[in-house]
Amino acid sequence: MKPLDPVKQERIIEAVFTIAGTQGIAGINIAGISKEARIGVGSIYTYFKNKEELIQAAYFSVEDKITKEMYAGFDLDLEIKTSFKRIFMNTLKYRLRHYNETVFIDQYVQSNYVQLNFDKQIKEFEIKNEALYRLIEKGQKEGILSDAASFTLICFIFGAVRSASNGIAQNFILLKKQMIDECFNMMWKGIRS
């Protein structure tokens, strides 16, 4: 059997993001993906059994990318607030540069797709975000952060980044250092003890 072409597979996944960015996750269908990726419907089924598997693959693809960028330059030995600001800024920059992907991921986590492999997704999330869990643990031990459950704090942090990036993308928040600092500072106040 001929090996699958990773470039073609990436084009299929990129088509998912493009469609999500313009039509939302509900607008994703195999015919639309075929047209957007310029790949035959039959070829898509060579790479993915069905739409659900394709959407899951797209989710894991974007989660890998955003997680790698989120922790760029991360150092657990830095001051707690500095480490959180780096994560906040890295994530915000990624979201602003990859709008279609962020529309996809935001809608994905609010859809029924998240339930398809929920246990697997939670385990992978914890592994990929181990640095953030360790940072929260360190901040709580030092009495800097709220003693809320780590996952609760993570949801709050990601919610703040999502709100800031959506506000900037929709021109409700100006893309200025002062405004971004205000967004971070509000998030920081929300997780402090």
TrEMBL record:
Key words, A-Z: DNA-binding
Residues annotated to bind DNA: 29-48
Gene Ontology terms, MF aspect: DNA binding
Record-annotated HTH tetR-type domain positions: 6-66
The UniProt record lists the keyword DNA-binding: yes
InterPro entries reported in the protein's UniProt record: BscR_C, Homeodomain-like_sf, HTH-type_Tx_Regulator, HTH_TetR
Top-level lineage group: Bacteria
Name the record gives this protein: HTH tetR-type domain-containing protein
Species, as recorded: Flavobacterium reichenbachii
Organism classification: Bacteria, Pseudomonadati, Bacteroidota, Flavobacteriia, Flavobacteriales
